[in-house]
Amino acid sequence: MNDPTNRWFAETLHGSYEQRLEISDILYRSKSGLQDIIIFETPFFGKVLALDGIVQTTERDEACYHEMLAHVPILAHGDVREALIIGGGDGGALREVLRHGSVDRATMVEIDHTVVDICLEHMPGLSDGAFHDPRFDLVIADGVKFVKETAHKFDLIIVDSTDPIGPSVQLFSDEFYTDCRNILTDDGIVVCQSGVSFVQEEEARGTLSRLTKIYADAALYVTQVPTYSFGFMTLGWGANSNRARSTDDATIRSRFEKASFATKYYTPEIHAACFALPAYMRY
Ligand code: AG3
After folding, report:
1. Which of 112, 160, 163, 179 is catalytic?
2. Helix/strand/coil (H/E/C) assignment for every residue in 44-87
3. Which of 62, 193, 222, 230, when mutated, tests ligand 1's pocket best, judged by the most ligand atoms within 8 Å of its CB?
4. What pairs with residue 223 in β-bridges?
5. Which partner for 195 in 10, 74, 116, 200 could form a disulfide, CB atoms 3.0-4.6 Å apart?
6. From the CB of 91, is ligand 1 less than 6 Å away?
7. Can you tell me the mean pLDDT for 190-208?
8. Where are the beta strands (DSSP E) in the chain?
9. For residue range 62-117, what is the model confidence (pLDDT) as tens digits?
10. Cα 259 to middle of ligand 1, angstroms
11. From ligand 1's centre to the CA of 47, what distance in Å?
12. How far apart are CA 106 and CA 94, in angstroms?
């Protein structure tokens, strides 16, 4: 199905359900590096990046994911200056982080430089100039090793990874989250993608139990991304204190108004609601 000569890109997240996206053009394809990478054009979703057969991001709905990874922790914290992004080579999370004037530095540690290069070439709207922002630092390295060895402290760590298959497996481990905790500032926060729990229950459940063991405040929150099929995408939250999650709604609203940028998904109301989980996600 994923043969480039085919007009359809098929994704199978669950053995008895297939999602297909119509391909109008294949812009890049490589199976020779760390992972199977494809970027293709579609009539409805714009350009799409898929890694190892799984849709990572599409131009049409990427904001539903990247805004929630960045704005929920940044506006809850209130004073994020140093941000670290693990993965996220397409630049979408980076773009949203750098919308905040309070951020002095955003470091991205991406294991696969090809993802950065080809996204910049074929999907430049994803990063929208963020890779050229003077506050941005790119490190091509293994995030697992970086968090173990760095001497820096961060107010926010965003883990924008693939699911735990291939190069991301180690990002879903106690050791990685302990190392992240150790490089966070006192009120620092880590957020991470933890799968669409309806079909990736182990990923969401495992993330929550790991975060609960390691952080003073741990939770899952949700966002709705149309091309991540099967419903809510869960995002994990871990913080060394519960200060950020105790921020009241009026403060969140006023911080958002002050930040003064337009969003496609995030609103202060969504922020207030996104930690409310359906009963099937009460792990
Ligand atoms: N990373 C999260 C992809 C999740 C795919 N899983 C799924 N559809 N259930 C996206 C990277 C975008 N910056």
Report:
1. 160
2. CCEEEEEECCEEEEECCCHHHHHHHHHHHHHHHHCCCCEEEEEE
3. 193
4. 233
5. 200
6. no
7. 97
8. 8-14, 17-22, 25-30, 37-42, 46-51, 54-58, 82-87, 105-110, 136-140, 154-160, 184-196, 217-223, 233-239
9. 999 999 999 999 999 999 999 999 999 999 999 999 999 999 999 999 999 999 99
10. 27
11. 15
12. 7
Ligand 1 centroid to Cα of residue 203, in Å, is 12
User: What value does the mean pLDDT of the chain take?
Assistant: 96
What is the per-residue pLDDT for 75? 98
At residue 1, does pLDDT exceed 70?
Answer: no
- Write down all domains in the chain, each with its CATH number in brackets: 8-58 (2.30.140.10), 62-281 (3.40.50.150)
User: Phi, psi (5° rounding) for residue 42?
Assistant: -130, 155
Nearest Cα residue to 93 out of 56, 63, 133, 72:
63
User: What does each C-alpha distance from 267 to 226, 242, 253 come to in angstroms?
Assistant: 18, 21, 8
Which of 48, 49, 162, 168, when mutated, tests ligand 1's pocket best, judged by the most ligand atoms within 8 Å of its CB? 162
* pLDDT confidence of residue 4: 52
25 is catalytic: no
Q: 124-175: per-residue pLDDT in tens?
A: 999 999 999 999 999 999 999 999 999 999 999 999 999 998 889 999 999 9
Q: How far apart are the CA of 201 and the centre of ligand 1, in A?
A: 15
Which among 63, 20, 27 has a CA at the least distance from the CA of 44?
20
Q: Pick from 100, 238, 225, 90: which is nearest to 160 by CA?
A: 90
Among 267, 87, 75, 84, residue whose Cα is nearest residue 172: 87
Ligand 1 atom nearest to 11, measured from its CA: 8
